[in-house]
Structure formats: C-alpha cells, structure tokens
Amino acid sequence: MDLAREAAAEIGRPEWVGEHLSACVEGDRLVTHLFACLDPAYPGWHYAVTVVRASRAKVVTVNEAVLLPGTDALRAPEWVPWKERLRPGDLGPGDLLPTAADDERLMPGYAQVAEDDIDEDGVDKQMVWELGLGRPRVLSEVGRESAAERWYNGDSGPRSPIAAAAPAKCASCGFMTPLAGEFRQMFGVCTNEFAPDDGRVVSLDHGCGAHSEASQPAPRPEPVGPVVDELGYDHIVFDDTTELELVSTDG
User: Fold this and answer.
1) pLDDT at 131 over 80
2) Is there a smaller number of Cβ atoms within 10 Å at the N or the C end of the chain?
C-alpha cells in the first residue's frame, strides 16, 4: 500500500492523494489499490495503482498508475463527430463545410449509360434535365422531403402566429414568386420588402399582414339608440269646437 501511495503521489501531488479506498486482486500477485483524489479539479476521481510481484521475486514493483473517474466524477461528454455537432447557423464567413460523397440528400446529376452504349472516348453521361445543367449532384428525394418538412413546420409555414392572423394566404399574394421544380407545388419566395419574410421561402398557405390584396377595413358606425321625448305633445284639431292635446312618447 505504501508503494502504491508513493506512485500515486508521483503522478499528482502528495497532498492530492487521500485515504485508501480499497484493494482489488486482479490476478496472482497482482493487486490494484484505489486512493481518493483530493485535487479540486477532479472531484469524484481516484488514483488507481496496480502493483505486482514477479514469480519467485521478493520485491514488489509498480505496474501502472492512473487517475480514474468514480461514479460521481465530473466527466466530459461522449465525443460526437463534427457532422453531428453542427447546427444551422454555425457556418460563418470563410468556413468550409464539405459534403460527404454518400450524403443521402444528394444524388448524381447524371445517369450512367449501359456498358454497350459507351462510346470510344470514355463513359458517356446523360444529363438529367433540370435548371442548372452541369451540376455534379442534385437534390435526392430524401433531400427534397427533408427541406419541405423543415420549411413547412418553421416560421414560414401555416402554423406560425403571423399566418394565423393574416387576412389571406400567400398563394393569392402578388408578391409571392413560386419556386421551380417539385417545390413549386408547395413553396415560393416572398418579394415584399415590407413583409417579415422578404427574401425567404414561404409555403403557399402561409400569410402575413403585407398581403398584396389586403385593405384597411372601413370603420363601423356607432350604433344610435332610440330618442324618447317625454316632454313634447301633439296638437290635434277634430273640428271647429273640439281640441285635444296628446302627450307624445316617441318624439
């Protein structure tokens, strides 16, 4: 135990080696001693020193000395690859974001021709018709579905508070420019500089108060209550000799 404590003090400091916690027999003449770690930077950790005595030897030697975390130790989180740590908005000026060759959001922008149709100059690549011919890769079905779901469920979709209070939908707005391709069926780009979604993709059933056909509602007239005149009267003449005065109750 004393030899193990000296080895623990060598990898740390003597004042950091606390009480002896336990001893675990790892095998024949092989024992690991655990000491509490008092280093304030490593709460809950402990020193593990393995000592061994060789066969027919009388001297015990140190095999290994390490600092190991205990059950309540403060530990760093599991390492996560950068592709999984990346979040929208993390890319800044000058940063590069390489796209993996097997990214499921993309597919080749060409179709390979059968072996018997290959010309003598090499592999012929028949381009798929799409705006921007010549791109090595285009959106795959997975990429389109992922983008559509993200846009539709975001702030520019029909479930946002501003869309719920809009006088009409973007589909009938003159400032909405439809996208090309399959996205045209659901999305467009807002071109109204006064709208909160100017320059952003919006769903056709989105909306805001800057709709091109929105108008200021006419003010409602104040309701007028009935006027009751209890002081007036009507002068009625029946003939030359009889006159009646009737009190009016309706003005």
Assistant:
1) no
2) C
